[in-house]
From TrEMBL:
Matches recorded under Pfam families: Peptidase_S10
Keyword line: Carboxypeptidase, Glycoprotein, Hydrolase, Protease, Signal
Protein's UniProt name: S10 family peptidase
KW Cell membrane (keyword) present: no
InterPro entries, per the entry: AB_hydrolase_fold (IPR029058), Peptidase_S10 (IPR001563)
Length: 507
């Protein structure tokens, strides 16, 4: 059985131990390092890839979990003090880091077509658009995602309390990052967090937790398809903000009226956004007191922008749920549209109903990503284990109470004049839609004093905009530009300055 002891892992045959025993078979502190090359933007770059586990410790210094990570470091950089480090998280909660790792920023790219659909044979190729030319990257898998697991010394309640909640997640990951940065001697490096989906809540909270509890200051936070970040928007605001996403999806599927359809997407959307903010929110806020004629006028405008009928919109009292939209938009053609990426089509058992039977985009993605990450870890990173890679791991119930992650990010920015934020959104994302992302950015700093440090980018794809090759190129280039822009000049002080002197007695 000596082959079960390779690379520092103590693994017993799964024919002997039950699957539940896998959780305590992973060595919580070990690494495997391999050497590679990749051509990025025409430049051949050598780098090392370190795949391994690093412990999470409790307050007594006892290891209570092992987090699986992959760290890419460019080999020809001698001085790491000016070399940026990007720390990457995906979301869920419960999702492994696989998505951005092998489809977006990393040096290897899974085999898909130019629009993101699966192709066979499965495999991995070079990513010529990776950001590894400008920054080193570490992809982190929280507990129960990827190959990360909690210790078997913890019972189920203890695992849930320590790891499965908005604030518990932020606390232990900040400590893990501190250890990683120390081990890799990256304290002097400019540091960036990037999170996708729920990972945006995670990195927004981490920005403040790293400052306040670990005394680690960042240069940038990148929010890919952000959540609501704990920013309140219930009622009329929540109901209305969906409409621009509906319009984008209807435009993509060519079901808008000819006047709107002939316009380009980004030329058409400002009209919808203006209507949403200035007319739709006030109209919904009036409820039954809204004049019947005005209600019909509003429904007609919504129908024009959404591709839905006035009748359906009035039946919903101007509040059309996203799940119904995905089912209704192409109902007469026999298709549903995807939640995370509404370019994708699904086929339900019945055309009738209130919501789709399944998410066509997610099944498509799992089709291509699952074989690719398992092959890549074993064959190229040389990391051998019988532990299952959790694309989506068991982290429920998740404690969503006291989600102040948006305000956490605002506080981190206020405390750190060097901290910038960039948001990236896909127009066809119905889960974390682009207009809600804009709204979050507006509310993140209602004073407007830090608005010059907040930016937003839109792409013609969905939740994982980088699956469309054209957006993969553009989105990575936007990250490069963001990093270069936010690197402070040598010896430049991080401080606020008044625009001019204020004289005594002035108002």
């Amino acid at each position: 059985m000596k082959h079960f002891f390779t690379l520092g892992f103590l693994l017993l045959a799964l024919t002997v131990l039950p699957l539940s025993a896998q959780e305590h078979l992973l060595n919580m502190d070990s690494t495997v390092t391999t050497k590679h090359e990749v051509t990025i933007k025409g430049q051949r770059i050598r780098y090392t890839a370190t795949a391994g586990t690093q412990p999470v410790w409790d307050e007594n210094g006892k290891p209570i979990a092992g987090l699986f990570y992959t760290y890419y470091e460019r080999s020809d950089v001698k001085d790491l003090t000016s070399r940026p480090l990007v720390i990457s998280f995906n979301g869920g909660p419960g999702s492994g880091s696989v998505w951005m790792h092998i489809a977006y920023t990393g040096p290897r790219l899974l085999q898909i077509d130019e629009e993101g659909y699966p192709v066979q044979p499965y495999g991995i190729r070079e990513n010529p658009y990776s950001i590894l030319d400008v920054a080193d990257i570490v992809y982190v898998n929280p507990v129960n995602t990827g190959l990360s697991r909690a210790s078997d010394t913890l019972d189920k309640d203890a695992v849930s309390k320590k790891f499965f909640g908005v604030n518990a997640d932020i606390k232990y990951l900040a400590e893990w990052i501190n250890t990683f940065v120390s081990r890799e001697s990256r304290w002097a490096s400019p540091k960036y967090l990037i999170g996708e989906s729920y990972g945006t809540s995670r990195v927004s909270g981490l920005a403040l937790e790293l400052q306040n509890a670990q005394w680690m200051y960042l240069n940038g936070v990148i929010l890919v398809s952000p959540t609501e970040l704990g920013i309140e928007r219930k009622g009329p605001v929540e109901m209305a903000l969906r409409l621009p996403y509906y319009a984008a999806t209807a435009w993509y599927h060519n079901v808008l009226d000819p006047e709107l359809q002939q316009k380009d997407l980004t030329a058409m959307l400002p009209e919808v956004e203006d209507f949403t903010i200035n007319e739709l929110i006030p109209a919904i806020a009036k409820g039954w007191s809204l004049d019947e004629q005005k209600k019909n006028e509003i429904a007609a405008r919504m129908a024009r922008y959404s591709g839905l009928s006035e009748k359906v919109i009035l039946q919903h009292n101007l509040d059309v749920p996203t799940s119904f939209f995905w089912k209704e938009l192409l109902r007469d053609q026999g298709y549903t549209v995807g939640r995370l990426d509404s370019r994708y089509l699904g086929i339900d058992r019945q055309e009738a109903g209130e919501r789709p039977d399944y998410a066509p985009e997610l099944t498509s993605w799992l089709h291509s990503f699952t074989p690719a990450i398992n092959l890549y870890i074993k064959e190229e990173l040389k990391y051998n284990t019988d532990i299952k890679y959790n694309m989506f791991g068991p982290v429920r119930p998740w404690d969503n109470s006291n989600d102040n992650t948006g305000d956490n990010l605002r506080q981190a920015m206020a405390q750190n004049p060097n901290l910038y934020v960039m948001t990236q959104s896909g127009y066809y994302d119905g889960a974390c839609d682009y207009f809600n992302a804009k709204y979050s950015m507006w509310q993140l700093d209602p004073s407007g004093k830090m608005k010059d440090r907040i930016s937003w980018k839109g792409y013609r794809s969905g939740h994982m905009m980088y699956l469309r090759q054209e957006d993969l190129v553009t989105a990575n280039e936007d990250i490069r530009a963001f990093i270069r822009k936010t690197l402070p000049k040598a010896n430049q002080p991080a401080k606020y300055q008044l625009s001019g002197k204020r004289h005594l007695g002035s108002k």
